[in-house]
Design a protein that fits this description.
Strand content: 15-25%
Helix content: 25-40%
Structural class: alpha/beta
Number of helices: 16
Largest sheet: 7 strands, mixed
Shape: globular
Radius of gyration: 22 Å
Number of strands: 19
Amino acid sequence: MNDQKPTYDVLVIGSGLGGLVSAVILAKEGKRVCVIEKNNQFGGNLQIFSRDKKIFDTGVHYIGGLSRGQNLSRYFSYLGIFQDLSLEIMPEVFDKIYFEQTNTIYPIAQGYDAFVRHLSVFFPEEIATLEQYVEDLKATCAAFPLYNLEDSEGYGKQIMRQGVKEYFQQLTSNSVLQGVLAGTNFLYAGIGDKTPFYIHALTVNSYLQSAYRCRKGGGQIAKLLIRELRKHGGEAFKRQEVTALEMENGRIKSIVTSQGHRFYADLFISNIDPKAFLAMMGKEHFRPSYFNRIQGLEVTTSAFSLHVVLRPEKMKYIAYNLYGHRDFTTVWTAADYGMKDWPAMFMVSMTEDSRHPGFADTVTILTYMHFDEVEPWERTRNTVVLGQDRGPSYEAFKRTKGQILLNDVSRVIPDLNDAIKDTYISTPLSYRDYIGMHKGNLYGHVKDIEDPLKTFIAPKTKVDNLFFTGHATSMHGILGVTIGAVTTCSEILGRSYLLEKIRKETDVTV
């Protein structure tokens, strides 16, 4: 590392998936690329952590679209990482939706035909409805060209304004089926009266195509991308938090990090929260209307995670994910819960014990949590790089909330309590400190059917050498963020050129 000028063609700030994908794409094109990361681990939401010698994922619990020829497998093949990923196909029924109100569990299967077949057992009068739903998913996804590696104009304005709850009410009058089909909306923090249907479609469809787990955790994706970056001559540095940006003639000239290093580049890609980046850069470098719009955007809520280490051979492994809801209507309000209603839902995901097949090794339980609930400790920071004790009141808060959540889940999985060895907890503060998103939000800014353009953040900014990438500026999730990075790089390389290269390479390799 040195301070010689110029050093890089492109400097990527933040090593989340969007930043790493952008870095690899540009390095493959011969650009001199550098990624800098503030934390001790690359990857953002791809990060993993270890407790009791067990590996837990921060955000990657399963991935869709990875079967041969499907969209994410093609993107990952182009990036050079697909063939080395350690993946495990999930069972045909990969998700189940539980409703406490009726004590009923409904299956969600991968493969369109299997999806319809399994749910038609519960809804024999709604087979045509289920088939129509599948066709609507396909049509909506087809309206977004990059979803299928296509180069065309894409969606019209009307697709942005169809609400998810409105769609399901028009699809069927069966409120139970509506709730089942919306039962995995923790994947996008859907709010019935705000969230567009296309968010649901783009998120859910890839899992219905195929659903996989990462055998070694999502962190392997980051490691493989770093490997590819370095293979193509790029560099990456950890523990380098940006503390200042230096401007010259309306362009970013360089950045300065907490370690006192100065990085020069011709182009800069920010993979950190747009609110934080704009504030650090300074309001004077942007139009007031743009700056104020970004700072005023509502963000999706955050999460509370209970990570459970199990005693050996004490609980049978459940290979599917379980989503729990109180009733068929609360699926629409879970992300906007009232304090007395917490937890408004839960998601359970397990790993299998490799030494004792058929038994569970770890359990991760996720639910929504508003940042307001941890505001008393807002001024604290706690990471591997910057450790700070939040105090006994915070630990008591976590224990209390963890037990409440565990009690809810134990009503559905009664063997869980007796199998627990240890528990570890993450709150919105953990997500904020390690991932860097404003208030630890899960999926970026809230998309609103009433004003769809308000939340749009273009990858190219009015500062002509600054670009954005990541889930705050595009779609969230592994697939959404990957496509968003392609969009960012298209602004630099040219969209038609880049897509043609991806198609040609993956037509051969998939």
